[in-house]
Design a protein that fits this description.
heterodimer, A: 2 domains, two-stranded antiparallel sheet, 11 helices, 4 strands, B: alpha+beta, two-stranded antiparallel ribbon, 5 helices, 56% helix, elongated, transmembrane (chain A), transmembrane helix (chain A)
């Protein structure tokens, strides 16, 4: 049982390392299946036969997808969604109070913090995945910036750097969030996703109902959170 | 056992320096495939049976993957007998040529080394 557990952990790490190296799903499936085949023959533990998963993934030198593919396909849309969500949050409070949307430079800088952190994610993605404290730290900074931005919001028009009608921003940001969610849902339902294929059965790694629901929740995360914010703003006005 | 600088090979009572195996494993693996397509464990067993020690999967598979990328071997998954399939590696014509070339080079290298290490033996061979 302990061997199975440690092997499962090793294979999970191997898949993560290969994904981080932008390997294709079919190549990852092949690597995993051939490693399992040898372990089945020798009875060895994965670590014993192949060494650390990270070193083995590097040693394979598999042909990989261009590194900027995920930036174009996943990071930029996520960044746009985050930006739209932050704009929505600012506009919705003003809209429910029938006030102008007032913005100060400090507030803008604090709101830009999570956007900048996400934009530079490719530079430190490995650290976020491998070290939980980096992930917690980045999340904490984003949350703190959001909270501080509420305190930095100007109380009246004289303090504001910008005073704008919130309705166009509210509608525009909502439309952007919904459009991105529809796009992500369409992409995740297409079979062209780079799934890990087991070469022995030519089937993709099966994902359960829970995982499929999680993917859809992730696709619609910003619109769902925006609805919660809208509800809170209406309730607390 | 793993091919590493700090871990010399042991085969048939002889310790092979790991550097030697690292240098030769490439064409030894090609040689193991010269009789026909084979799979990971069979290649490891073949090399072990011929006195090269136990090669680890973490050493063999990256090598074969590089050879596949270089066009020296092809791979094919075949259905297993009552079990999961096996990944078979087969030499291509290019791989066979590379084996012939590397094998010839290695023979010349060994001959040169022997002549240098034991000139008397080399002279005996010439005079005989």
């Amino acid at each position: 049982m302990r061997q199975q557990t440690s092997d499962k952990k090793w294979f999970d790490q191997l898949v993560i390392e290969l994904r981080l190296r932008q390997e294709h799903g079919s190549a990852i499936g092949d690597t995993v299946a051939s490693a399992r085949e040898l372990l089945g023959d020798t009875g060895q533990q994965a670590e014993e036969a192949f060494g650390p998963a990270r070193d083995y993934a590097a040693a394979l030198e598999l042909p990989s997808a261009p590194r900027n593919d995920w930036v174009r396909d996943a990071l930029w849309p996520s960044l746009l969604g985050l930006l739209a969500f932050l704009l929505f949050n600012q506009a919705v409070v003003s809209w429910t109070r029938s006030e102008l949307l007032l913005v100060s430079p400090a507030q803008l800088a604090l709101l830009a913090t999570p956007v900048v952190l996400v934009a530079f994610l490719p530079l430190y993605l490995d650290a976020v995945i491998r070290r939980i404290w980096v992930c917690i730290g980045i999340s904490g900074i984003c949350a703190l910036a959001g909270i501080l931005s509420a305190f930095a919001a100007p109380d009246d028009r004289a303090e504001a750097w910008l005073a704008i009608d919130p309705v166009p921003w509210l509608i525009g940001s909502a439309l952007v969030m919904v459009a991105l969610s529809v796009r992500n849902t369409a992409r995740s339902s297409l079979s062209t996703d780079d799934e890990i294929i087991d070469p022995r059965s030519r089937t993709a790694d099966t994902t359960g109902t829970g995982a499929r629901v999680l993917v859809q929740v992730t696709n619609w995360l910003f619109p769902l959170l925006a609805l919660v914010m809208l509800g809170l703003a209406v309730a607390l006005r | 056992m793993e091919v590493s600088a700090a871990d010399p090979r042991v085969a048939a009572g002889i310790e092979w320096p790991s550097d030697w195996l690292r240098a030769t494993l490439g064409f030894l693996a090609l040689r193991a495939l010269s009789a026909g397509p084979s799979y990971g464990y069979a290649i490891i067993s073949e090399l072990e049976r011929h006195g090269f020690g136990t090669i680890k999967g973490g050493t063999l598979y990256p090598l074969l993957t590089r050879y596949e990328t270089a066009g020296l071997v092809t791979t094919e998954w075949r259905a297993g007998e009552g079990g999961p399939g096996r990944k078979y590696f087969a030499l291509t014509d290019q791989g066979r040529s590379e084996l012939t070339r590397l094998g010839g080079d290695w023979e010349r290298f060994v001959e040169t080394s022997v002549q240098y290490l034991d000139p008397a033996r080399s002279t005996e061979g010439t005079s005989a």
